[in-house]
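Wed. Picked up where I left off yesterday with Putative ATPase. The coffee machine is broken again, so keeping this brief.
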Amino acid sequence: MSPGIHLPTGWVTFVFTDIEGSTRLAQMLGPGYRPVLREHRRLLRRTLAGTRGAELLTEGDSFFIAFPDAAAALTACLTAQRALATHEWPAPEAAPRVRMGLHTGWAEPRDGEYASAEVHRAARIAAAAHGGQVLCSAATARHAASLPEGASLLDLGLHRLRGFDDRERLFQLVAPGLERQFPRPRTADATAHNLPTQVTSFVGREAERAELRRLVQRHRLVTVLGAGGAGKTRLAVELAAGLVEEYPDGIWFVDVAAVTDPGLVAFAVAAVLGLRPEPGRPMVDTLVEYAAVRRMLVLLDTCDAQPAASAQVISRLLAGGGGVRVLATSRESFGLPGEVVWRIPPLSVEPRPDGAESDAVALLLDRTAAARGGRPPDPAESADVRRVVRRLDGLPLAIELAAARLRVLSVGQLAERLDDVLGTLDAGRQDLGPAPGGGWTGDPRDPLDGVGSSSGDAPPAGADRSAQRPAAERHLTMQATVTWSYRTLGARAARLLRWLAVFAGPVDLPTVEWLLDDDPLDPLSVLVDKSMILAEPHASGSTYRMLDPIRAYAARRLVQAGEERAARDRHLAWATHALARAQLGPDGSPATLSLYALDPLAKELRAALRWCVTGGSARAGLRVAGALDQWWRERGLAREGRLWLFRLYGRIAETGESIPDAELAAAYHMHSLHAGADGEFTEELRFSQQAEAVARQAGDAGLLARVLAGRAAPLIDMGQFAEAERVCREVIDWARERDVASDALFAVLRLAELLWRRGALAEAAELLGAARPVEASRPAERGRRSVDMLLGMVALARGDLVAAHEHLLVALRSRMTHGFHRRACDTLNAVAVRCAEGGDPLTAARLFGAAQATRASLRSTPGIYGAYWAEQQAELRGALGDAAFDVAYGEGSELGLEEAAAMALGVEHPDLGADSVRFGATGAPTPRRHAEPGRRPAGRTERA
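Structure written out below (tokens, as returned):
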């Protein structure tokens, strides 16, 4: 700095700039970089230092300048960016992309420099910017009295700067001539990936990582192929972790094995990216539009669980934009244009050229030390360690299993047993082959699709079997390890292992007892000791989990033993029993239905349904589906419910199984409700009509009343409100005449909604009062507290905030207590209206945001209240102003459902407010007049 420059004091705005990617630019331009750097400095000095700025430091491609005025500093940055953008550089790729950061703070220079944390904050803000971007702190935004014409500051939210404990609100300078779209600022809390955290060390594979990294950098689609247990996922995640800095828009991991249906693959990818479904638009279109302008890597894991759907999503992503790359793991290639297939090799079993142990030996030593409490194998066991990894062909999962067994065996003992087993398999390595009889051998993790994680499945008809032989051989090598363990089991332990394969997840001891109808402790102990089953202790008791490759192996053994039908029917009976038990209280009497009781059963129930649609009873499947009726809709899984029902219908057509009319009518009725919740209104009407036709044949008046009570739903969904009201009244009268009035409860509730909608509040309240005891007497419905919800809506329409508050909080508390999440969203919206009417608009906006975020995650349609919520939000926005409403709404959208419900339940009762007249001289509140819901109010009174 020149000694003649005057340094500002007091409120000083510090500006830092540098060239993004200067090292790469210098390497690319070579000798041509120096003139570019010199011209860059000239332009910045003319526009920054030449406008009342004091240049403190110029080093390489960086500038540090102090301004006495924040507005002048922003103007200088704007001028500088425009000058850089319009300057004629030697070539377009030679244009330097300069990032700029500003912060304003109180500072006084000493000895020609500033020693202040404010300087460091400005430097961190500049480091958070991208090339061509100007970022500033909230302090600079406050002190900038005026901005150049056409310029504004875009609020980017709160960010944690590296080295600072607090969070800084950052703003982007937006103006004509400046780029506007940038990735998220590079701050300490900017998540660049969602890669799973590994709990064990990654061993070896340096050469494979280097080769795969080169492929990923050169090609947009790389598929890692290999047998189950070859380490595809672990290698892909390890590689991706080292590439985070190369993808400014992140690296995003998606586990396709967790996707329950092919149609949900795009939803799974979108969910990871934070995208929400858009009404009337395929999710894949939203996904492609988002990805088109971004530079990111998508890691799709276990694509063989949904191969066709994964291929379709990958194809659309790659065609939609050039910045997206895909790294996939699978057991089969996609056959897409541009796909590079890389087959993962086994771990090296030969010593390295430098004399170090091979990767396979290093992995076995590492895992054995962990299994033995930190004690590595004795050096005297080295020869046997090498012998073991050679016999296992260097397959990582086989080595992991071997290390687990070394808890109770020496390495020599293990090596000897492996020798014996391999010798017996020489003449019959295909002894497990494809499952005979076409039995179900699917992976229970993914009940809606395909075969499991174990390789070696029979190739499809017409496939080239010779092409599949290498993968099959690796699979059989891994199976040799499992076969050794299996052949050391006694008859009871072997049978238990086979039968446990029908469960999709961990099981507890009572479940194992139920499965065998015998004391399982002895055989279970054998399986745990031999690492065939993992025991996981919990405070409530241990659970027992089978590794997926072992589960697939045991499932094939189950088929070979001719026990599959008996075991899966037993599992189906257990699932039915568990469902029934979940709906009973401790005394065995019917309890209020809690959907939380069904959540832990979901995997097992899906596995039971899978058996029903492939080899079991469709009628039993309809019973399981019926027990999950409300759970599917309240968890945002109505589409999954519809798919299961379609498959059960197909099973009925295939087998000709006789289904009683009453059960079929109930299934069609349930299907209609699922279709309505999923927005498929034509399908909703069709199945409603089918349900009515079959119910009339059944001759059950109560059933017919329940089915007829659902006729109004599709009419409401299609906007035919007058017709829906007529139908509701007819059904109620019909049910009353036949003494089955309680079975028409759904029609009563629908009629009350319609009356509320058109402002017939007295009739609605009277109808609901009569429905309360009916709802309370029905365990499946009373947890929803629909009567209280509707009475709360009526009270809102009447302006009675006290009654609205009490009814709505009762409904919300019950819905959250019993797991009715979709319905809880409606109640949150209603409480938001109550808050707006009660003078708490910010809480109202937050609750609206929270309700919408949860509803979007559940893919739920707004239903009859949709127009009312929209009207209330519009009015609230007008009262608060766009900025305040958007901030509060955004805060609410970040809340989880439980957090939002807690906020709503914490809203102060109107009687506790300072202006409450509930217990004043008049003894009662003065009702406020409201317009009919869904219509604009005329002369609406002001909020209290």
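Quick read: The chain has five domains: 10-174, 206-343, 359-425, 436-461+489-610, 783-944.
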